Amino acid sequence: MSKNLTTRADDYSKWYNELVVKADLAENSGVRGCMVIKPYGYAIWEKMQAELDRKFKETGHQNAYFPLFVPKSMFEAEEKNAEGFAKECAIVTHYRLKNDPDNPGKLMVDPNAKLEEELIVRPTSEAIIWSTFKGWVQSYRDLPLLINQWANVVRWEMRTRLFLRTAEFLWQEGHTAHATRSEAIEESEKMMNVYAEFAENFMAIPVIKGIKTETERFAGAEETYCIEALMQDGKALQAGTSHFLGQNFAKAFDVKFANAEGKQEYVWGTSWGVSTRLMGALVMTHSDDKGLVLPPNLAPIQVVIVPIYKTDEQLDEITAAVNILVSQLKELKIVVKYDDRTTQKPGFKFAEWELKGVPVRIAVGPKDLENGTFEITRRDNLSKETISKDEIAIYIQKLLEQIQIDLFNKALEYRDTHITEVNSFEEFKEALEGKGGFVSAHWDGTAETEEKIKNLTKATIRCIPLDRVEQAGSCILTGNPSVGRVLFAKAY
């Protein structure tokens, strides 16, 4: 099945697009720029969603749901946010269609059904949520307000790519209100750390934690915390953001509370989110020329068992042995599938499950039954082993844990060997074009220099790392003083 997959070396972008479709993750829809997430892809998203949702609730957050539509005047209340998203907004102007008298069988917009106020289809929900918070917060006793929403949003992208950039996508967005500035900053950092822990422990993707420059900051935020990942082609991908909003939205929507002394104060806010873009990160970080490679913690199927037989009698004997193993694996909470389809040969099944990235494959034939063994193949490195049936369940459990660790370490090694320190603009360009990855360089802190570097090289400042060492230096472009290195990269 995977023979027709373009190789990463030949065309990384084409490889990615083909893999997402051929592995049954998603496909383009009848709506330009929008995708259909297929059951196998959605099963991965559900696993992501379940783990993140658990983490949010552990940290005291509650789920709610807010309208898809935002009145234009409400959207405009926080000017920077409205300006930042204005070019991506879809707008509802009418609420009814009618038959077109000039084109029988066709419909037209009813000019008499114009909305009194246009509605924005949410590109993000700060406006509608903060207008709601106004009614929920009166006293310091109502704080902190810790809300999360699982939803879809619409950003009218002109150039789209499955999962990475689509006009409509799925995400979660957290929105919180606090009594003090320090509490809100603590919340912003906490949620960045939740995202980082999820990316590393479940997605097996190492990330760099940092803050965005003012230019790259979320519209309406005072600070944007982020986690940045590196894909196999040397391009960076923003895997999650958490924003300290200050009192910007509280003031825009008049969200105040009475403190312990009875004095009225504006609350302090945060918002944070990750989206189905994580699916793209998962594909690009681990997969190979044979197809998907999925970390066990997120694989919809962790183990697939394929019988190899010639007669129905042999299949029955194999099935009896497999049923025992399936029960053992299920007791260990391992998700297993027995692929006993009679319509496809073993070779086809092997290729199909390789393409779909199932972490462990077990093959069972008549000789295996005689020997009391099973043949096990790891998807990540395609190595094979023969294991006794008496030891196999615990062996599989430990193997899945090892695969998870190995995938992370492999990605970490790639990331760490693709961070290059440079001290001149020539070195900077050479690293970007030759090696790729993150380039650690001094920058003078101005938006003008940041924009010039972007225009000259297509590289952006991905983040100012939280763990950077403050050190005096000279900006690679202007030679002006710099207080420390930042990470540049070409990015998705």
Task: Briefly summarize what is shown.
This protein has 492 residues and is an alpha+beta fold. It is built from 14 helices and 27 strands. It starts with 11 loop residues before the first helix and ends with a strand.
Describe this structure in words.
- The chain is α+β, with helices and mostly antiparallel strands.
- It is 35% helix and 27% strand.
- The chain contains 14 helices and 27 strands.
- The chain has an 11-stranded mixed β-sheet, sandwiched between helices. A 5-stranded mixed β-sheet has the order 18-17-19-20-21, with helices on both faces. Strands 4-8-5 form a 3-stranded antiparallel β-sheet.
- Helix 2 crosses helix 6.
- The longest helix has 25 residues, at 392-416.
- The radius of gyration is 26 Å and the shape is globular.
- 39% of the residues are buried.
Instruction: Average the pLDDT over all residues and give the rounded result.
Output: 97
Distance between the termini: 28 Å
The total count of strands amounts to: 27
Sheet having the most strands: 11 strands, mixed
Low-confidence region ranges = none
Main sheet: strand order: 3-9-10-16-13-12-11-24-27-23-22
Approximate strand percentage: 25-35%
| Tally of DSSP helical segments | 14
Radius of gyration: 26 Å
From the structure above, extract its key features.
492 residues; alpha+beta; eleven-stranded mixed β-sheet; five-stranded mixed β-sheet; 14 helices; 27 strands
Compile the SSE list and pairings.
Elements (H helix, E strand, L loop, with lengths): L11 H11 L3 E3 L6 E3 L1 H20 L3 E2 L5 E3 H4 L3 H7 L4 E5 L2 E3 L7 E3 L4 E8 L4 H11 L8 E10 L13 E11 L2 H21 L6 E4 L11 E8 L5 E11 L1 H5 L3 E3 L5 E3 L1 E8 L1 H10 L16 E5 L4 H20 L4 E3 L7 H10 L4 E5 L1 H6 L1 E6 L5 E5 L3 H25 L2 E3 L3 H10 L3 E5 L4 H11 L2 E6 L7 E2 L6 E2 L2 E5 L3
Parallel strand pairs: 3-9, 17-18, 17-19, 22-23
Antiparallel strand pairs: 1-2, 4-8, 5-8, 6-7, 9-10, 10-16, 11-12, 11-24, 12-13, 13-16, 14-15, 19-20, 20-21, 23-27, 24-27, 25-26
